[in-house]
UniProtKB/TrEMBL annotation:
It comes from the Bacteria. Residues 387-413, 445-460 have a biased composition (Polar residues). Residues 385-422, 445-464 are annotated as: Disordered. It holds the Pfam family Sel1. InterPro entries: Sel1-like (IPR006597), Sel1_AlgK (IPR050767), TPR-like_helical_dom_sf (IPR011990). This is Uncharacterized protein. It comes from Simonsiella muelleri ATCC 29453.
Length: 889
């Protein structure tokens, strides 16, 4: 019973995680992780890695991935290898990366599917101990087949004491996932009162659900799909094939891939096509393997090359051949396909399919890092800045889209003085000028983002059947085939209705709505709108739905909003997108914009920036301001369209002229850097000011930077403080940090150390590394107490773990001297090295000093780091080298 309860809670957490409800998921995962659940540990790692509902924390993420990895969970082992390879929360260590990738690779035969097969085999030969252990593990991962088998074991007392209540609990978990045999067993238990209270109505309901599912049997459904396909009814064929493909029907997956490849009922999408071909090929479907090979060899598609490598590497549909696999991975990697580059790094580290070569592994990891950096740089006007902040302004009224949020990036490197170094180490003073935010403000996901529709709901012209890909009916006509259930057995005939002889019928026949004219439609729409505005969402939903089904575009859009928000109906993002599409096809601008958002965010479907740009363009041409701004962003970054700064500026201008603050800000950036327009500081300031006066925090922050540094304006600390304050009060961490520094120095405001610390702490609490470093400095400089030193070291540590070189240097000094932490020269060396590798000259000198004075001394490393410091003109390091030369003489 306890296991079933834990599984139910874990499923609740996973569902909440998938639905982006992290506030619910996090505490359940924490509780489950304490009970050694690898699934929970892995999900916690992902939350901390990506900052999902928690502050992004690579160290915490690595800790949870390690817990799951050490318990043998392959995805966590692969993640831990990735963290070592990229130095995320852990020291960069390619050997450790290779070791963990190797462990994950060794576990490749322990996938859930393989484990389930082994457990079922053990069950068949009555090795119940083995079967029970694996079924319990898989059941906690919400595997319906495993849950069903646990029900069987408890029901029959196989390997466990007979326990009908436990059996009913496990059957119910599987039955709720539409697993037909479990629905049958549960229905019988309710009918007989075994493990549950006798309840004929519940028994009938479960047995009728099973009957309905049997009517929807896979082969029967596939035959219907064939008929629809032959009659050129591609939309229905697609729906049925998609349902079967999601049930791992290999032939359906293959034909679904062909529909994407040739654009039958959906827009042509080679990536989706390859994805479905691969799923089919992994099950050994010959035609799918041949198609992947064709796309890889004849069409040179990197995704297909990578897929063919996976097939050879895992013996899926072909004989295992690691050399062939490595060859295909290499071809894809050489074309810049990042997953293939990662795979080559892993295989060189493991010596799989190629000779073990850690230098090659390192080189490929380097290419991955370069590709990631290039991808980030493409989205920005200038160099990457240190911190990324976002503000959100969700629109929840129907006259505008309910899914818009805005965001931007901001960073300032303040003038700071670091504390004194170890004996004979000079303290370092660094000055980095404040920089103007140089990235286009990106539209980020809000709490109201919706799942986009799947391609089967797209309305496109039918395409003639390609004879080579026509589905062929292989069954003789007029021959009844037995119905096979999902357990591979001949399905028994279920007469659920027999149990309803004493149960009242509650359903009434649905009568068709009479057609109404346009005047009546207008009246009904107005009535529905009034219900909506009065927040009578139940009535609004029914009224909008009736109109939407008659093709009323505005009602279709409103119906989409109700589904997206869960107002008057259970929230269903996919249905929301369906109705947005129907309205969008009728030229409804807001619906077109929402559909563009779905594709841009990859909500419910694979992210497709080309589709996003298409729908944004349709809405933008109709004057929809958010679409105009977002289209400008796409032209800036070159996502979904060819990069074109002039086009970007044109769309920003259209939106800015309508008063859109974020577009005004983006247009200001265009003028500041001369991107698509003639460079003009005057116009840059003009548009940034317009956005700032409308309350845009990023624009306010950038105005503060301009006035503080005198970039394009006369330097004015008072104006800088004014605009920083406005942005800081909206929670912008970079503005909070900079305002704190103005208070610390008394620039533009009266000097006030307490206010300085308050503002820096607000930013530091948001994970702003510069603010954490500066707060450490404030504690170190303003108080000489032991508590002050402890606080300083604690804040240095937070910033250091984020890679802040100044904080790493100061934390090393703290460990060297025992300031606020226990004295530890080994840890001092670790943090000095981290800072030194980032070019901090004081750290390079300090590291050399520690190696020079270590016991025994390490003159080689001391010389190495002093030479690095001398290259930057450090005289202390030169004197150290002179002393080293004397000792060697």
């Amino acid at each position: 019973m306890k296991s079933a309860i834990i599984t139910t809670k874990l499923k609740q957490a996973i569902d909440a995680f998938d639905g982006r409800n992290y506030a619910i998921a996090h505490p359940i995962f924490l509780q489950a992780a304490q009970q050694k659940s690898t699934i929970a540990q892995f999900h916690l790692g992902k939350m901390y890695e990506q900052g999902l509902g928690v502050n992004q924390d690579y160290v915490q993420a690595a800790n949870y991935f390690r817990q799951a990895a050490e318990r043998g969970y392959p995805p966590a082992q692969a993640k831990l290898g990735e963290f070592y390879a990229n130095g995320l929360g852990l020291p960069m260590d390619y050997r450790q990366a290779a070791e963990w990738f190797s462990k994950a690779a060794d576990q490749q035969d322990k996938t859930p599917e393989h484990r389930l097969h082994e457990a079922c085999s053990a069950y068949e030969v009555e090795d119940f101990d083995t079967a029970l252990s694996t079924f319990q593990e898989l059941a906690q991962e919400n595997d319906a087949v495993a849950q069903f088998h646990l029900g069987e074991m408890y029901s029959a007392g196989k390997g466990v004491p007979t326990d009908f209540q436990q059996a009913a609990d496990w059957y119910e978990l599987a039955a709720k996932q539409d697993f037909v045999p479990a629905q049958v067993r549960l229905g019988r238990m309710f009918a007989n009162g075994e493990g549950v209270q006798k309840d004929y109505r519940a028994a009938a309901e479960w047995l009728m659900k099973a009957a309905e599912r049997e009517d929807d049997d896979n082969e029967n459904l596939f035959e219907q799909a064939q008929n629809a396909y032959r009659q050129n009814d591609y939309a229905n064929a697609f729906n049925m094939l998609e349902k079967l493909a999601n049930r791992n029907h290999d032939a359906a997956q293959y034909y679904l891939g062909s529909m994407y490849k040739y654009g039958y009922s959906v827009r042509q999408d080679n990536e989706q096509a390859i994805e479905w071909y691969m799923k089919s090929a992994k099950q050994g479907y010959p035609d799918a393997v041949a198609m992947v090979r064709e796309l890889a060899s004849k069409h040179s598609m990197p995704l297909a090359m990578f897929g063919l490598g996976e097939l050879y590497g895992s013996a899926l549909g072909v004989e295992q051949d690691d050399v062939q696999a490595a060859d295909w991975f290499l071809r894809a990697a050489q074309r810049g396909y990042v997953p293939a580059q990662i795979k080559m790094a892993e295989w060189y580290a493991q010596g799989r399919g190629v000779a073990r070569d850690y230098l090659q592994a390192s080189a490929w990891y380097g290419k991955v890092a370069q590709a990631q950096a290039a991808g980030q740089a493409q989205q920005a006007f200038d160099a990457e800045v240190a911190q990324v902040n976002s503000t959100s302004t969700p629109h929840t009224r129907p006259t505008i889209s309910p899914t818009v949020t805005y965001g931007g990036n901001s960073s300032v490197k303040p003038t700071v003085v670091q504390p004194s170094a170890p004996p004979t180490i000079q303290s370092l003073k660094t000055t980095d000028d404040a920089v103007i935010e140089s990235e286009v403000a990106q539209t980020s996901q809000s709490a109201n983002d919706f799942q986009s529709i799947s391609p089967n709901n797209q309305q496109v012209d039918d395409v003639p059947v390609n004879p080579e890909n026509e589905i062929v009916d292989t069954q003789p006509e007029n021959v009844e085939e037995p119905i096979i259930n999902e357990n591979g057995e001949v399905a028994e005939v279920i007469d659920g209705a027999a149990l309803l002889q004493t149960v009242e019928e509650t359903e009434e026949p649905v009568e068709e709505e009479p057609k109404i004219n346009e005047e009546e439609q207008a009246q009904q729409f107005q009535h529905a709108l009034t219900s909506y505005q009065n927040q009578d969402f139940d009535n609004a939903f029914n009224e909008f739905k009736a109109l939407a089904e008659q093709g009323h575009a505005e009602a279709q859009y409103y119906l989409g909003i109700l589904y997206a928000q869960g107002w008057g109906v259970e929230q269903d993002e996919r249905q929301a997108a369906v109705w947005y599409l129907k309205a969008a096809d009728q030229g409804h601008a807001a619906a077109q914009y929402n559909l563009g958002m779905a594709y841009a965010k990859g909500l419910g479907i694979m992210q497709n920036m080309v589709e996003a740009s298409y729908w944004y363009t349709q809405a933008a041409k109709l004057g929809y301001v958010q679409a105009q701004n977002n289209l400008g962003e796409l032209y800036t970054s070159g996502e979904g369209v060819n990069q074109d700064y002039a086009q970007a500026a044109e769309w920003f201008t259209k939106a800015a002229d309508q008063g859109d603050a974020i577009a005004q800000y983006n247009l200001g950036l265009a003028y500041a850097y001369g991107r698509g327009v003639e460079q003009s500081d005057k116009k840059a300031l003009e548009y940034t000011l317009l956005a700032a006066e409308q309350g845009n925090a990023i624009a306010q922050y950038n105005l503060g930077v301009r006035y503080e540094s005198g970039q394009g304006v006369v330097q004015n600390y008072t104006e800088a403080a004014k605009w920083y304050t406005k942005a800081a009060e909206q929670g912008n961490p970079s503005a909070q940090n900079n305002l704190g520094l103005l208070y610390a120095d008394g620039n533009g405001v009266e000097k006030d150390t307490d206010k300085a610390a308050d503002w820096c702490e607000k930013a530091a609490d948001q994970g702003h590394a510069d603010a954490q470093f500066n707060l450490g400095l404030l504690y170190a400089q303003s108080t000489d107490t032991e508590e002050g030193q402890r606080q300083a070291a604690a804040w240095y540590a937070k910033a250091a773990e984020q890679g802040h070189s100044g904080a790493q240097n100061n934390l090393a000094i703290a460990y060297f001297n025992g300031w606020g932490v226990e004295q530890d020269h080994e840890k001092a060396i670790v943090w000095y090295r981290a800072a030194a590798e980032q070019g901090v000259v004081a750290a390079q000198y300090g590291l050399g000093w520690l190696y020079f004075h270590s016991s025994p001394p390490n003159y080689e490393l001391a010389e190495q780091w002093w030479q690095e410091a001398v290259k930057q003109g450090d005289q202390n390091a030169q004197r150290g080298l002179d002393e080293l030369a004397k000792r060697r003489a």
